[in-house]
C-alpha cells in the first residue's frame, strides 16, 4: 500500500527537499503541496491523503491552527515539522491532535520511518522533544506544588498504576524502559543494548503492554519517575 503524503511549508526549497527525501521510499508518494495553512486544510479535507507533514509558521493560517481543523474534520494523520524552539509548540500540537512532532533536522531514514509509523497508528516524537518533556516533568515533580514527590491530579497520578506494574518487567525490559527514558529510537535502543532493531521493537511493545501505556512518551515519563 502506498502512503499518500501532503507537504505543507511556505518555502519552496523546503518542500522540494522533503519531497526528494521521502520519495526515495517505494511505499511513499507525495500527492500534494501547500504553501500555507489554508491550502493545507483545503487539500487535506478534499483530497485522499494519509499523512500531512506540517510546518508551524506559515502565512494566512499557521500550521497548528491548520492541524486542529484537519484533525477535527477527521482528516489524515499529521506530523508537525519545525526548526523553531519546540517547547513553544509541542504542547499545542499534541493537544490539537498531531500524531507526531519532529525537528526539520531529522534524517531521511528517521523521517520515512516516522511517516510509516504514524500511518500505522503510532505516535512519534523526536528524541529531543521526549527528553524535554521528561525534564519538564521532573522539574514539576520536584517543584513547590509537588506533594510527597507527586503532583496532585497531574501526569504522575496517571502513572500511578503503571508504576505499580514495574515489577512485571524482565531485566531486559527494564533496560528498554531506561532507554525510552532517554528518548532513544528503536534503532538507538538496538545499538545501546546490542540487539536487533526488530527485537528492540518487540521489547518496546511488551513494555508498553505490560505497563498499560499507550505511548513512548508515557514510558519516558514513567522512567523518569521510577
Which helices and strands, and how do they pair?
Blueprint lengths: L2 E6 L3 H11 L5 E7 L2 H10 L4 E5 L7 H10 L4 E6 L7 H6 L4 E4 L4 H12 L4 E2 L1 H16 L12 H4 L1 H5 L6 H11 L4 H8 L3 H15 L4 H10 L1
Parallel strand pairs: 1-2, 1-3, 3-4, 4-5, 5-6
Helix pairs in contact: 2-3, 6-12, 9-11, 9-12, 10-11
The helix/strand class is: alpha/beta
Order of helices and strands: EHEHEHEHEHEHHHHHHH
CATH architecture of the largest domain: 3-Layer(aba) Sandwich
Q: Return the average pLDDT rounded to an integer.
A: 85
Task: Please report the number of helical segments.
Answer: 12
Protein name: DNA-binding NarL/FixJ family response regulator
Domain Response regulatory: 4-119
Keywords: DNA-binding, Phosphoprotein, Transcription, Transcription regulation
GO molecular function: DNA binding
Report on the architecture of this protein.
The protein has 226 residues and is an alpha/beta fold. Helix content is 52%, strand content 13%. It has helices at 12-22, 37-46, 63-72, 90-95, 108-119, 127-142, 155-158, 160-164, 171-181, 186-193, 197-211, 216-225; strands spanning 3-8, 28-34, 51-55, 77-82, 100-103, 124-125. Strands 2-1-3-4-5-6 form a six-stranded parallel β-sheet, sandwiched between helices. Helix 9 crosses helix 11 (197-211). It is globular, with a radius of gyration of 18 Å. The N and C termini lie far apart (41 Å).
Task: Give a brief description.
With 226 residues, this protein is an alpha/beta fold. The protein has helices spanning 12-22, 37-46, 63-72, 90-95, 108-119, 127-142, 155-158, 160-164, 171-181, 186-193, 197-211, 216-225, and strands spanning 3-8, 28-34, 51-55, 77-82, 100-103, 124-125.
Amino acid at each position: 500500500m502506498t502512503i499518500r503524503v501532503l507537504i505543507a511549508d511556505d518555502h519552496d526549497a523546503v518542500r522540494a527537499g522533503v519531497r526528494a527525501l521521502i520519495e526515495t521510499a517505494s511505499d511513499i508518494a507525495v500527492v500534494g503541496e501547500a504553501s500555507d495553512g489554508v491550502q493545507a486544510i483545503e487539500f487535506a479535507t478534499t483530497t485522499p491523503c494519509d499523512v500531512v507533514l506540517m510546518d508551524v509558521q506559515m502565512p494566512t493560517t499557521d500550521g497548528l491552527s491548520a492541524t486542529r481543523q484537519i484533525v477535527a474534520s477527521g482528516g489524515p494523520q499529521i506530523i508537525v515539522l519545525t526548526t523553531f524552539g519546540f517547547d513553544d509548540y509541542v504542547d499545542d500540537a499534541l493537544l490539537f491532535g498531531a500524531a507526531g512532532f519532529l525537528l526539520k533536522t531529522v534524517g531521511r531514514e528517521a523521517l520515512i520511518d516516522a511517516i510509516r509509523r504514524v500511518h500505522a497508528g503510532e505516535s512519534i516524537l523526536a528524541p529531543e522533544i521526549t527528553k524535554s518533556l521528561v525534564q519538564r516533568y521532573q522539574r514539576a515533580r520536584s517543584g513547590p506544588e509537588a506533594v510527597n514527590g507527586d503532583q496532585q491530579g497531574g501526569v504522575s497520578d496517571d502513572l500511578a498504576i503503571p508504576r505499580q506494574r514495574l515489577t512485571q518487567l524482565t531485566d531486559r525490559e527494564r533496560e528498554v524502559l531506561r532507554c525510552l527514558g532517554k528518548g532513544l529510537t528503536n534503532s538507538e535502543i538496538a545499538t545501546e543494548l546490542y540487539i536487533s532493531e526488530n527485537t528492540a521493537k518487540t521489547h518496546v511493545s511488551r513494555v508498553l503492554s505490560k505497563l498499560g501505556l499507550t505511548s513512548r512518551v508515557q514510558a519516558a515519563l514513567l522512567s523518569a519517575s521510577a
